[in-house]
Design goal:
alpha+beta
Length: 133
């Protein structure tokens, strides 16, 4: 089975979110330099972290550069303290978890798997599809 991989986020994708949140063009160059210094995986994690925080109405600094730095620190802290997510693909618990309606297909470290919505949020995964009974 071929896995569908969404296009990786670009600087303009993250800048659009940060600018809409109150960012100014004053910090755009610094934000772009920081973005360009990150690996594609870190860029995706940063984009997903900020997107999720904004969707959940959680605080994201109006200073775009500061928002990026704070999100990177949060990602680092979560990765050092959190156990890796359980991939429910081909597991015995799969049917029971689908019946509960809490599984998603998501991308974790470049591989698509089946995870709980909570793990996807905690690990800033890109959700591809929600699995329903």
């Amino acid at each position: 089975m071929d896995s569908i991989k969404p296009a990786p986020p670009t600087f303009l994708d993250i800048w659009s979110m940060l600018y809409s949140n109150g960012g100014t063009n004053y910090s755009k160059y610094d934000c772009c330099c920081l973005w360009d210094s990150l690996s594609p995986e870190k860029q995706s994690e940063l984009y997903n972290n900020i997107r999720l925080r904004l969707e959940q109405k959680r605080y994201v600094s109006y200073n775009a550069y500061q928002a990026m730095q704070e999100s990177l620190r949060e990602i680092e802290r979560l990765q050092h303290h959190a156990a890796p997510p359980k991939n429910y693909n081909h597991s015995r618990e799969f049917d029971a978890m689908v019946a509960k309606g809490c599984l998603v297909t998501a991308n974790y470290n470049g591989e698509v798997g089946i995870y709980t919505e909570a793990d996807a949020a905690q690990h800033n995964m890109t959700i591809i599809k929600h699995l329903h009974p």
